[in-house]
Write a structure and sequence with these properties.
The complex is a heterodimer of chains A (about 180) and B (about 220).
Chain A (H helix, E strand, L loop, with lengths): L1 H49 L4 H4 L8 E3 L5 E9 L2 E9 L5 E8 L27 H4 L19 H17 L5
Antiparallel strand pairs in A: 1-2, 2-3, 3-4
Chain B lengths: L2 H12 L10 H7 L3 H25 L8 H23 L1 H12 L5 H11 L4 H31 L1 E2 L4 H4 L8 E2 L13 H25 L8
Antiparallel strand pairs in B: 1-2
Helix pairs in contact in B: 1-7, 3-4, 3-5, 3-6, 3-7, 4-5, 4-6, 6-7, 7-9
The chains are: A alpha+beta (about 180), B mainly alpha (about 220).
Chain lengths: ~180, ~220
């Protein structure tokens, strides 16, 4: 009996060591590739938003809810807001005068077909993505924080619309943009 | 039928994990919104099924009875984590869309069920065959549901296959229905239940008519 327990524990320990070892090795081998993937996805979106393919050469990736200054004094930042399906991560570009140059959705879990008009990848509702952007998201171009109540709503997606509007507003105010 | 084909076809048809055993319905309903997600999850599930069957069957004499479940969970969780890392490294686009459901493969009862009922009691080659059959059966259900929901809900078939098979696959998309005839509900959760119910009814119908033809009286269910 005791023998059996010792044997079982030994097997479990050995198995754990084997699996942890294998995972550690794969993690180490793929870490660089995964980082590259994440970075590329980020800079692809940022450079298309800023219409400038040199960003990745000189900018540091901003952390969440912070912004970095571009060479032409525009500012690129990340914001998080809470939508209907959980948090929504936004990438926001401000012009040098503090007005909004553009907004992109990086990550969201809104209802497909109802709340996902904020995501340029999804052509379901007839919004052909242009530069990974949707017509609804393009409304933000050129607005100040005070103009945000003018953003069009969407039937059935009030919470999503409010979330984006609030996320952008908070970001602009915190970045000392024109309010 | 030889043992080989018998074991394989049992997993695919007689004991199909989705429409006979009704296991793994959570990923089946959640990820079947399009063919590409369905194929992605099928591949990931197949990887976990095969690698856990392989390990569990070859270690079955070493693992004492009381340590069975923790050992199985360890192996299943390990292979799931492995496929998560590999997907993020080599199919990043797809990963960012189905990541959550790949991670919860670990709780998919199909996998623990086959480990407990089959792989832990059978020799290696049979365990691997059984896992392959089960994986194939699950994949057929998942992709069929994904295709039906994508056609009815989005009007397309094979959209965004490039996120799994590289840039060349971007042109595989077929537009089946014009925009005005798309039924959005098919992609939403209620549509998943309706379509899965229809798929189930179809599978039942086929298996009953086969049983009748072979002279057996079908079970009243």
């Amino acid at each position: 009996m005791t023998n059996n327990i010792v044997k079982g524990l030994a097997v479990l320990l050995g198995l754990t060591a084997l699996i942890v070892g294998a995972l550690a090795w794969v993690y180490d081998a793929t870490r660089e590739r995964i980082d590259t993937n994440r970075n590329q996805a980020f800079w692809k979106e940022a450079e298309s938003l800023a219409n400038d393919t040199t960003l990745r050469d000189y900018l540091e990736r901003p952390t969440l809810t912070s912004s970095v200054r571009l060479q032409d004094d525009r500012r690129l930042g990340l914001a998080r807001t809470t939508g209907y399906g959980g948090s929504i991560d936004l990438m926001i570009l401000l012009n040098a005068d503090g007005s909004i140059a553009g907004v992109r959705t990086l990550r969201h879990a809104e209802t497909p077909g109802i709340g996902d008009f904020i995501d340029g990848d999804t052509p379901i509702d007839g919004n052909t993505p242009i530069n990974g952007n949707t017509p609804w998201m393009r409304q933000f171009r050129g607005l100040d924080a005070t103009d945000l109540p003018d953003i069009d709503g969407r039937t059935g997606a009030t919470i999503t619309v409010d979330a984006i509007r609030q996320g952008v507003k908070t970001f602009v105010e915190n970045s000392g943009g024109s309010a | 039928m030889t043992t080989t084909t018998a074991v394989l076809s049992a997993g695919i048809i007689e004991r199909n994990p989705a429409w006979v055993q009704m296991l793994g319905l959570c990923p089946l309903l959640a990820v079947s919104t399009s063919v590409v997600s369905a194929v992605g999850l099928s591949l990931a599930s197949a990887f976990v099924l095969l690698s856990s069957a392989l390990l569990i069957s070859s270690l079955r004499r070493l693992i004492p009875d009381f340590a069975r479940l923790p050992a199985f969970m360890l192996i299943i969780a390990g292979s799931t984590t492995l496929i998560v890392i590999l997907l993020e490294a080599y199919a990043f686009d797809l990963y960012s869309r189905i990541a959550l459901f790949v991670q919860i493969i670990v709780t998919n009862c199909v996998i623990l069920g086959r480990a407990e009922a089959y792989a832990s009691r059978q020799p290696l080659h049979l365990a691997v065959l059984d896992a392959a059959g089960t994986a194939l059966g699950f994949a057929i259900a998942l992709v069929a549901l994904g295709a039906a929901r994508e056609v009815i809900g989005a009007g397309t078939l094979f959209a965004r296959m490039d996120s799994l098979f590289g840039p060349d696959a971007a042109s595989w998309v077929i537009t089946v229905l014009p925009e005005s005839t798309r039924l959005l509900i098919a992609i939403l959760p209620p549509g998943a239940f309706i379509m899965a119910g229809l798929l189930l009814a179809l599978a039942q119908h086929i298996s009953r008519s086969r049983a009748t033809r072979n002279g057996k009286v079908p079970h009243a269910t």
